[in-house]
User: Which sequence fits this backbone?
């Protein structure tokens, strides 16, 4: 963070989610100076997505003095490859699920600035390590509970990228090998099929279809139920909705017990819409973790919810990737 930062004091951070794409102009202290968003799924082709993004970016860039003030852009995206700047076979993206999209290049050409990209959950982990509850931690696992389930694994202070840039797809560890739910990745029984926002809605529909107890959720058509309806019902004390969170928390705890066996993190950090359920999710999660973990790991990790509001952790993390670029 030196050199031409005085002339170019900002980077653009993009948190590219399955539902929303959030852009922020960030300075070197991590202050978000301006922000905007577009709907990720409104575009069938990546060219249209990039064009709409660039239009939105220009509005916020103008607020800080124009593109001349921007050093680089960092992107956190599902199935983002830090090594190549591509998004590869991202199941939740209309324009990214069938092939390899050179997103960093497309943005770089459209904006005329250097662009770097990493997995969205890795970006969130970097954001959390730099500005959030993971400050000072060298070993932790970030789990993002959104449209899908993402993960960023930090070991000895470094994000684990693996041989190809894709390490840390903990959302796709298989939790149920018999009759597991189909997952967006094409396999069955993945953590993501149960513990994402869409997984929560599926659990609610399953409970409603297989039981006959009363629930506020019966007022909706099953296909209209999303995690939002479940969370509203749970907030009103609905027993079935609360059980949906208990089911979700239990499975997450089970998964974390396995993850602890892999990298012995000092904390699991949860981020994303589902964490708004608070204790409804976290109490069964921690209990289940203790039931399923090896004795040596049982009482060690902390279970924390990100304190960075909204998508700022992901935007800040994405921007941190941008600061790391060293153009010639
Ligand atoms: Zn999967």
Assistant:
């Amino acid at each position: 963070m030196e050199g031409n930062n005085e002339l170019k004091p900002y980077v653009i951070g993009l948190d590219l989610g399955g539902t929303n794409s959030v852009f922020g102009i960030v300075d070197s202290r991590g202050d978000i100076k301006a922000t905007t968003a577009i709907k990720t799924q409104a575009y069938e082709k990546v060219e249209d997505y990039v064009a709409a993004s660039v239009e939105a970016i220009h509005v916020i860039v103008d607020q800080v003095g124009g593109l001349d003030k921007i050093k680089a852009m960092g992107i956190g995206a599902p199935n983002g490859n830090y090594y190549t700047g591509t998004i590869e076979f991202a199941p939740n993206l209309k324009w990214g699920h069938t092939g390899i999209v050179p997103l960093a290049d497309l943005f770089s050409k459209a904006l005329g600035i250097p662009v770097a990209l990493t997995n969205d959950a890795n970006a969130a982990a970097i954001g959390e390590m730099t500005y959030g509850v993971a400050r000072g931690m060298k070993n932790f696992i970030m789990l993002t509970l959104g449209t899908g389930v993402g993960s960023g694994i930090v070991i000895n202070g470094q994000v684990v990228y693996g041989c190809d840039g894709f390490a840390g797809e903990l959302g796709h560890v298989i939790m149920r090998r018999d009759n597991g739910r189909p997952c967006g990745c094409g396999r069955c029984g993945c953590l993501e099929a149960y513990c994402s926002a869409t997984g929560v809605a599926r659990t609610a529909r399953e409970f409603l279809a297989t039981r006959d107890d009363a629930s506020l959720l019966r007022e909706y058509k099953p296909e209209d139920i999303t995690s939002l309806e479940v969370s509203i019902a749970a907030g009103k004390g609905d027993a079935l909705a609360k059980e949906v969170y208990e089911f979700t928390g239990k499975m997450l705890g089970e998964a974390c017990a396995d993850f602890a066996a892999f990298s012995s993190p000092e904390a699991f950090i949860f981020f994303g819409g589902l964490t708004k359920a608070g204790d409804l999710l976290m109490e069964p999660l921690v209990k289940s973790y203790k039931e399923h973990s090896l004795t040596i790991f049982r009482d060690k990790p902390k279970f924390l919810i990100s304190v960075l509001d909204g998508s700022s952790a992901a935007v800040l993390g994405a921007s941190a990737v941008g600061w790391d670029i060293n153009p010639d």
Q: What stands out?
A: The pocket of zinc ion is lined by residues 172, 183, 185, 187, 190, 192 (CB under 6 Å). The longest strand covers residues 20-27. The mean pLDDT is 92.
